[in-house]
Amino acid sequence: MVLKVNTKRQEILVPLRLVELIPENDFCFLVENVLEQIDFEKYNSKFFKTPGQKAYDREILLGIVLKGAIDGGLSGREVGRRVQTDLSYMYLAGMEKPNFRTINRFKKDYPELIDEALETVVKIAEKEDLVRLQQISIDGTKIKAKASVNKIVTEDVIKILKKEFQKSLEKDNEENNLFGENGDIIPSNKVTDKESFEKIMKEIKEETKDSKNHEKLNAQSLKILKKGLEDKEYAQKFIDKSQLYLDEFEKTGQKSLSWNDPEAHWMPGKDGRMRFNYNPQIAVDSHSGIIISAGLSNNPTDHYELIPRIEDIESKYGHLKHETQIFADNGYSTDENTEYLKNKNLDGYIASRKLSRKAKKYNTNNNPFSKDYFIFDLEKDGYICPQGQILNQKGIYKNGLKTVYWTNNCKYCPERINCCGKYRNRTITDYGNPAKIEMQRKMETEEAQEIYKIRSKTVEWPFGNIKRNMRINEFNTTGLKRTETEFKLLAIAHNMKIIQKAKQNT
Fold first, then answer.
1. Is residue 270 packed enough to be buried (19+ CB in 10 Å), middle (13-18) or exposed (0-12)?
2. 23, 140, 440, 459: which one has the fewest Cβ atoms less than 10 Å from its Cβ?
């Protein structure tokens, strides 16, 4: 065997284009296709007449950010490294080398451009017959925020620190007025003394003594207090920022928040453990698994997330047809959501509590006489008990939000004690407006349950792809808006992989 000549130190005599060195199936060409369909002039125009160093074209920055999302939700620092070492990134960047600060600033300042990129990708998928808008599944999940449980603060602690910092700064300003900046009794960078420090910490410890996280609270409070009392600028920044925390406490009713990300809230994960999480929301076209709408919530429940997803879809892709099927689990089963679907003539399938538990195979009620085992009969307009008796509607109360069913035949039933307990009759009560109850009745039918199975096959895959294949178990940004942008980039990456696979299979 003859050894092949080592050519790595030889010059290339024939000029080559960078594109010729990149494999044909590289994602950078699909990214390029997306970029070609976006009008960047409106985003670049503000830089045309500004003095100073030339800004990077928004097209370049979006291109490398999209490629970074496809490659696993890469950080700005990693994308900045790859524009210097990776051919596909170098190609998209036009051999420019923006640093990680520029990249991160771009994602922070241009959420609307990334939202437009998601819309563009969906429209490309629609041209490839991957989006039909006939069956849409809506779902949410919990993903850990970039917030440590060791860095928590409470409303009372924030108020104490704010008050003390304000007091100390006022004292320092009075001293400066009397003695001048250079004639301070206390050094110019300090705002209080040891005695005051100990007094404040004592107050904080007293306030947090009943909290199960009192040690973490005290440790974080001590850290903030030390820095704030040593540094006037930090103290002022804390005062300015404190209102954001106080607003979050008032808005959410949460007992504690993360110091580095107050918009991340306590939520239970899949394992039931409470963490600082965000609640990503998606609407998925059931035909292909393409995410047609993506958003982010810091609300622990999904109650308020169905309508925003549908409105987002219609604002971008036109009004949904009346026969469009909308799937959602029991977390979206509210009076408002069911009424909304009915008024828009959309064919909704929102799981009842019973169906949701059955589908997820957990928290099932093994009592054979629980409400779950009473089947509603649409023709008879009543519940059929496990013994075959019909419970008829006996009354509607509380402005139509409470419907009661019962029967007089319980006294002859051999299972009366097991079913009714100490009562003479078994009563079944439904709560909710007529639209919600109608939805519950609908989901009792075998036909609806069969159709609903489409949902689990559709909506769980995108989240599984993002969490497992992209390895996104924790967001790498803080703040609701910035993290939402990060999540939309992941949604774009998911969609582009589906499009790429579809193109390769044709």
1. exposed
2. 23
